[in-house]
């Protein structure tokens, strides 16, 4: 009997010890997750600081009177110059249809525009709650610069994004251009509004914000607007070099999503798609089952496949906060998130900063992989045009700029001599 009691006491002690070890293990895991997130945020701040110093050094070198050795540009830099030149001179040039860019798609009010503003780090688009605000494609070319500025490609005016008054003017101009692009009673327009945004630490890439997909046409919309939106998004996603940024509202049921099936139709293997789950703070507040978010971020809930899955916070509901305030709120939310502590999200999947890095990296990989292909396309186009010239004008040889200048000069001198 004494032995039995001793065995029961030893068993109870063992159970208590195991429970204590399990609780300690869970506590240690939670603490490690918190430490990992803090470390990541400190690295992010240090990276931003280094980028700022790098921009200052670039500015000093550029304006220095000391003679420097010319460094050969990399393929990436040259390709970026090509993108800027095409964007500055002719936004309708057909070869752009096959150049890499990030196409931002999603359901209406899913947080596409807010997500893009977080990457741009400025509130550059007009606001609207529950109504369609993006009525035409908006192409934004991001680049590094000493000042945070925005400029439309067909305008000389430069907007200072650090000024609240100029941000208001910029949003009004975007809204004016969208309304001007929509003609003849249409609800949307295929006319692209192009702008360039520069600033310290911005990742260089080209993004296109498209109008959101809708489920139902409401009063005032032109008939077949729903089909027109599908066609517009498809025309951009059809580009084999386009990276698709698929934005899904995390605060609603995943089954209500319209965009995932459309994305899957254009990129069934997910080789050029990045999935973004927005409003994760609302999802955590409203969702009883955290494993559902985990399935979404592991790519197990939707049939659509993607290169990566990210969770972001792009605001606090109807409250109009600055980008700095939202980034601070996002950082604070993820530091105490139950979804993060439960293992539903990995640290590398969280925050707009991680998303921006991933999108930029994917964009430049696509540029690197497609630059030779695009070069061959340009060469073939030039060869066909030269052949067409020779066949159409067999007696006139092709002339370069200097030849044309000399010919025109001789003709003018002949006319003067005849007088």
List the topology elements.
Elements: H1 2-62, H2 75-89, E1 101-106, H3 112-120, E2 138-144, E3 149-152, E4 159-160, H4 164-181, E5 193-199, E6 205-209, H5 225-237, E7 242-249, H6 259-266, E8 273-278, H7 280-286, H8 290-297, E9 308-311, H9 323-335, H10 338-341, H11 352-392, H12 401-418
Parallel strand pairs: 1-6, 1-7, 2-5, 7-8, 8-9
Antiparallel strand pairs: 2-6, 3-4, 3-5
Walkthrough of the structure:
There is one protein chain. The protein is of the alpha/beta class. It is 51% helix and 12% strand. It has twelve helices and nine strands. It has helices at residues 2-62, 75-89, 112-120, 164-181, 225-237, 259-266, 280-286, 290-297, 323-335, 338-341, 352-392, 401-418, and strands at 101-106, 138-144, 149-152, 159-160, 193-199, 205-209, 242-249, 273-278, 308-311. It has a nine-stranded mixed beta sheet, with helices on both faces. The chain is elongated. It starts with a helix and ends with a helix.
């Amino acid at each position: 009997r004494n032995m039995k009691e001793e065995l029961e006491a030893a068993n109870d002690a063992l159970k208590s010890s195991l429970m204590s070890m399990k609780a300690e293990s869970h506590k240690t895991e939670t603490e490690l997750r918190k430490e990992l997130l803090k470390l990541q945020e400190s690295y992010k701040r240090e990276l931003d600081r280094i980028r700022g110093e790098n921009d200052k050094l670039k500015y000093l070198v550029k304006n220095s009177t000391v003679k420097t050795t010319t460094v050969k540009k990399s393929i990436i830099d040259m390709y970026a110059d090509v993108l800027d030149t095409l964007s500055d001179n002719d936004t309708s040039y057909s070869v752009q249809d096959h150049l890499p860019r990030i196409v931002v798609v999603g359901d209406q009010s899913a947080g596409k525009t807010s997500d893009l503003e977080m990457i741009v780090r400025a509130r550059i688009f007009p606001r609207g709650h529950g109504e369609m605000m993006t009525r035409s494609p908006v192409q934004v070319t991001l680049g590094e610069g000493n000042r945070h500025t925005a400029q439309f490609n067909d305008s000389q005016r430069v907007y200072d994004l650090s000024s609240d008054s100029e941000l208001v003017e910029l949003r009004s101009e975007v809204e004016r251009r969208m309304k001007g692009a929509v003609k003849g009673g249409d609800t949307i327009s295929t006319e692209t509004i192009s702008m360039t945004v520069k600033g310290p630490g911005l990742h260089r890439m080209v993004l296109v914000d498209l109008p959101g997909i809708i489920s139902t046409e409401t009063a005032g919309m032109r008939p077949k607007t729903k089909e027109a939106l599908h066609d517009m998004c498809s025309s951009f996603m059809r580009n084999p070099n386009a990276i698709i940024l698929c934005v899904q509202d995390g605060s609603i049921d995943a089954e209500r999503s319209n965009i995932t099936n459309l994305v899957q139709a254009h990129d069934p293997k997910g080789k050029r798609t990045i999935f973004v789950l927005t409003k994760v703070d609302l999802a955590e507040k409203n969702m009883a089952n955290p494993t559902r978010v985990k399935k979404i971020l592991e790519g197990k809930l939707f049939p659509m496949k993607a290169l990566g899955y990210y969770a972001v916070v792009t605001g606090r509901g109807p409250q109009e906060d600055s980008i700095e305030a939202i980034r601070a709120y996002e950082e604070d939310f993820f530091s105490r998130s139950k979804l993060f502590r439960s293992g539903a999200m990995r640290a590398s999947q969280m925050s707009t900063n991680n998303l921006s890095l991933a999108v930029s990296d994917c964009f430049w990989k696509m540029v690197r992989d497609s630059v030779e292909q695009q070069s061959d396309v340009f060469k073939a186009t030039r060869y066909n045009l030269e052949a067409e010239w020779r066949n159409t004008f067999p007696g006139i040889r092709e002339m370069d700029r200097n030849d044309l200048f000399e010919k025109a000069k001789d003709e003018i001198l002949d006319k003067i001599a005849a007088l």
